[in-house]
Amino acid sequence: MSLQINNITSQLAHVIYGKEQQIKLAVCCLLCRGHLLIEDLPGMGKTTLSHGLADVLGLSYQRVQFTSDLLPGDVLGSAIFNSVEHQFHFHPGPIFSQVLLADEINRASPKTQSALLEAMEERQVTVDGVSHPLPEPFFVIATQNPLHQAGTHPLPESQLDRFLMRISLGYPSEDAEKKLILGIKQQSVSHIQQVVDSDALKELQAHINDVKVAEVVVEYILALVRYTRECGKFTDPLSPRASIALGNAVKAWALMDGRDYATQDDVQAVFGSIAAHRLNIPCHLQEKVVSDILSEVEIPL
Known about the structure:
- By secondary structure, this protein is of the alpha/beta class.
- It has a five-stranded parallel β-sheet. The chain has a two-stranded antiparallel sheet with strand order 3-4. A two-stranded antiparallel ribbon has the order 6-7.
- The chain folds into two domains: 2-206, Rossmann fold; 211-301, Helicase, Ruva Protein, domain 3 (Orthogonal Bundle), CATH 1.10.8.
- Helix 1 packs across helix 2 and helix 11 crosses helix 12.
- The chain has 13 helices and eleven strands.
- The chain has helices spanning 2-13, 20-31, 46-56, 72-76, 110-114, 117-122, 157-160, 174-181, 198-207, 215-230, 240-256, 264-275, 283-296; strands at residues 36-39, 61-65, 77-82, 87-92, 99-103, 124-127, 130-133, 139-144, 165-167, 212-213, 261-262.
- The mean pLDDT is 86.
């Protein structure tokens, strides 16, 4: 299992230089059957990483460019009247794929953004009162630009809570950027090798349940969540959904490390990517605020 996971991360490392931690978090998110939000400035490789994740896992992939005039039906699909049969037939939209890349999701109107809520939570789409199941597995990978940029609409808290993780790629390292300047290009997504198929991915996801989480690790998760609710610093403290997300993510992180047990270090490794967007912490402040939380909450022994 750990060999398969290492193959996944190593393939993605050929597409995005010097972002091993972010790649590992992205894979961890998908192993938890969660949805991933990637926030960064344009040109940082958000779309490249999203497409690479779909290709390396051998999953069907659709990309939707979110714009201000995008309608919910453009994503979900719509019922079209058949004049021959004199009845409406549902025509699925691009959301009916195993990986949906919602590119620049915060450029769409709140109405279109909210069209994804049912799909992300219940993995189905309801159009004209009829529910249509989505493919399995199903992941939403959304990218968004910083809110200070023109033409952006902030995601509502209810939607942010449905993203298991938020990551930011950031600027490349000096060595990676030097390679780009010298023309040493990153591997194209079209040349990425598929490492697992959907059946192997489901098997990896099932093995997460075999990872043991000791009582002290659970107590640490609860202590962190309780701190956000009681410290008075956050208007939107962590919800029970965040607690569950932390529990699943620490098991996936341990599995990726080749262990069948989780530790407090696993909690610290994934906490920021799961908590920061739910606490409305901007990306540029995430590292400091998360570090302060981890330093103030005592680790149970």
